[in-house]
Amino acid sequence: MIQAFAFYLFASFVVASGAITILARNPVHSVLWLILAFFNGAGLMVLVGAEFIAMLLVIVYVGAVAVLFLFVVMMLDIDFSEMRAGFIKNAPLGVMIALVLLVELVMGVGAWRTGALQLGVANGASATPEGLSNTAAIGALLYTRYLFLFEAAGIILLVAMIGAIVLTHRQRSDTRGQNVGRQIARRPDEATVNVKPAVGQGVTL
Amino acid sequence: MIPFFEARGLSYGAAWGLSTVLEILLIALPVMLAVALVIYADRKIWASMALRRGPNVVGPFGILQSFADGLKVFLQETIIPSAANKGLFLLAPIITFTVALMAWAVIPFNSGAVLADINVGLLYVLAISSLGVYGVVIAGWSSNSKYPFFSAMRASAQMISYEVSIGFILICVVLWAGSFNLNDIVKAQKDHVWIINGFVANPLLFPVWVMFLISGMAETARAPFDLTEAESELVAGYQTEYSSMAFALYWLGEYANVLLMCTLNATLFWGGYLPPLDIPVLYLVPGLVWLIIKICGFFFIFSWVKATVPRYRYDQLMRLGWKIFLPLSLFFVFAISGYLMATGHFA
What's the pTM? Predict the structure, then answer.
């Protein structure tokens, strides 16, 4: 009973906050609603017994990606009238992407329902082997059967990261960098001079 | 507690619900009480290091000072700036406070004495602690004021930077313990080196613990890393526009987070509820007492650092996080997994 209650709670929150994400007028509110959607998505993952994925969803998406997203959106000065104009222009493209995603979703679920995909059992029970926590199960699969795909994904991400850094990095010659090692190594006797002028000397009046 | 209520004629569902609520209260209320006492202890330690007396008027030795302060802020008026985003402005302190209490659900207080004995306990702690930044960022943005906004920017960059190295540090612990479950991690520390309970005695894990302690201070935005509320530059940072209970919620949440960091230090590296040495006599003292002693010790270190170390500059903070801790923690992940592979730990 409590599982069903939790499922409908999380599911309705995901759908509602997803809808408000695109309907909200303020972009910062949109990001916050998106975060709520991620969070409830993680709740759904816990319910189907995929607690490892749920925690990763919260750590990676809520804890890091969305924070950076919020960081950028908060600093933007967004012109709403311009955005409205862009909405009409880009609407056909958006509808097309949405349709493609919908078709993919329907096909994926259909294939799984008919048993063409060996993901798990069609009644929704988790596919984790008995007596193995799903962290261990994912680890065992990821580092044996899918090792090369996993490594390839890692390399693609690394290349993307280096690319982003190379594209945005500019060498600035007008900034004065600080050498922390030199600052720490500095001692009072090499930085200060104690002059002991005689009384009446060293001052021009 | 479930069998206790079932024996009194409740159905399993009702017994489960009632005992969960009671257990949550059993953890949350002592934590709040501990926070009040720890604020007093912090002020007292800080004062004595500055050769002052500290709070000494309310109650014996001033021990009731925090409660007097709490009553004071409770009776104050909540001021909401007219330009603030009202809903988010009020939501932000609630997020900070709630998140600070949530992580305690997976902390083992004694062998088996844990509210949620889940097998991704450590990931849960990491997930919850990464939520803490939202309280600060939302406060900074919704206040619609310069200084809180600067503080929010600083907080988001700071917490993300240190979370990366904390993640690698925790992986070292998980590799050695072979589990994400905090109870299992504590059990894995029994007799770790000769008769010493705790990963900290391990020469490979000791430097990792030092990094964890420092990263923990940065993660909880505690001095010397309290750049988010640097009073010399940002008034009070993200708390600038807050007053009365909303301000108090930040205060409580912040100290609850510091206590949690101390508890994690104790649980992950110092043997948690186990006595420091594996001698049968020491097991006569309850595990909770050992855990509290360790937490108090770590809290003293946190206060000590706050009283003695000057605040970092922002570029120094970023340098420490990205250029020192990140490569070092990555190196230790390699070193420890290499050592464990070579010695056949996983076999």
Answer: 0.83
Separation of alpha carbons B2 and B7, rounded Å: 9
Q: How far apart are CA B271 and CA B125, in angstroms?
A: 17
* Distance (Å, whole) CA A50 – CA A135: 9
Terminal alpha carbon distance of chain B? 38
**B216 closest CA partner among B166, B271, B263, B155:** B166
Instruction: Determine contact: B152 vs chain A, CB below 8 A.
Output: yes
Q: Could you give the angle at the alpha carbon of B148 between the alpha carbons of B232 and B84, nearest 5°?
A: 145
Question: What pLDDT, on a 0 to 100 scale, did the predictor assign at position A116?
Answer: 65
A89: tokens are 């222009």
pLDDT tens track for A134-173: 788 888 888 888 899 999 999 999 999 999 999 988 887 7
| Contact check, Cβ <8 Å, A70/B156 | yes
Gap between the Cα atoms of B102 and A32, Å rounded: 20
A165 touches chain B (CB under 8 A): no
For B220-257, write each residue's pLDDT tens digit: 888 788 887 777 787 877 888 888 888 888 888 889 99
B43 dihedral zone (left: phi>0; alpha: psi -120 to 50; beta): alpha
**pLDDT band of B182, cuts 50, 70, 90:** confident
Q: Cβ–Cβ of B126/A55 closer than 8 Å? A: yes
Percentage of residues of chain A with pLDDT beyond 90: 19
Q: Do A63 and B163 touch (CB under 8 A)?
A: yes
Q: Encoding tokens for residue B61?
A: 């030795």
Average pLDDT over residues B333-339: 90
Measured in whole angstroms, the distance separating CA A122 from the mean position of its chain's CA atoms is 30
- Give the gap in angstroms from C-alpha B137 to the nearest C-alpha of chain A: 8
Whether residue B134 lies within 8 A of chain A, CB to CB, comes out as yes
Contact present, B32 and B251 (Cβ < 8 Å): no
How large is the ipTM? Answer: 0.79
Amino acid symbol at B261: M
Q: Is A121 left (phi over 0), alpha (psi -120 to 50) or beta?
A: beta
Nearest chain B residue to A179, by CA: B316
Kindly list the residues from chain B whose CB atom is less than 8 angstroms away from the CB atom of residue A52: 120, 123
User: Stretch A122-127: mean pLDDT, rounded?
Assistant: 50
